[in-house]
Amino acid sequence: VSELVLWRREGRDLAIVSGAELVEHFPLLSADLQAFAAAQCAAEMMDRSLAEGESYPRLFSLLISFLRSLAPGTTSGSLLQFSLQAGQQLGYNCRADRCASCSSPFPANPGPLWLEYGRGGVVCMNCMKTASGAGERLAPGVAAAIRSAAAGTNGPETAAIEAVRALDRMLGYHQERKTLVSHRLLTSLAVPA
Q: Which of 42, 69, 116, 126 has its CA 20 to 30 A from that of 133?
């Protein structure tokens, strides 16, 4: 986190940095490649989701809190929680506690579920039959990871990575953008379960 002094000439798009001061740094990002990859995903999500030149103090605070919360072995779970919270602040909530279509609770072991992009969440197998097709099938562990993250806890890292990717595809659907490139690094670093 830095404070910058920018000088911009009228009529020009680019500014000149005339002063900079480091306010806070995150040493884990240079020591842990998985933490770096998770931070890269979060930063790319913000870069692609926000309008240039606008101020988003709540999302900036959320990003800083996410960076502060990173710890070895929990980076993907923390990124999943960040993705859910950022999506909510951007107006794209992902309902995972109950069916996003009929509001029925999920059974203890629901089997595969469907992430319905247009309905904004996970839907049960009955509602999946009438789904629009804009979505994807979720393995039980991935759906459980989304539910855990929505409740504020972390699930298994590999399931969290898949959940982050699914949420990004849902956000990309609504924002009419491609998925994040930084997922490749995060996925390649995943430890097989």
A: 42
What does the pLDDT read at residue 192? 54
- Residue 145 reports pLDDT greater than 80: yes
Q: Which residues have a Cβ under 8 Å from the Cβ of 54 and sit 6 or more positions away? A: none
| Residue carrying structure tokens 């990004």 | 168
Which token pair is 99?
A: 């069916």
Q: What is the mean pLDDT of the chain?
A: 88
Q: What is the pLDDT of residues 122-142, one digit of tens each?
A: 988 788 888 777 889 888 888
Determine the angle formed by the axes of helices 157-175 and 140-150, rounding to 10 degrees: 80
Classified as helix, coil or strand, 4 is: strand
**3-state secondary structure (DSSP) of residue 132:** coil
d(CA 74, CA 157): 7
Report d(CA 119, CA 123) in Å as an integer. Answer: 8
Rounded-to-integer distance, Cα 64 and Cα 153, Å: 19
CA-nearest of 18, 26, 25, 21 to 3 is 21
Check: CB of residue 150 under 8 Å from CB of residue 72: no
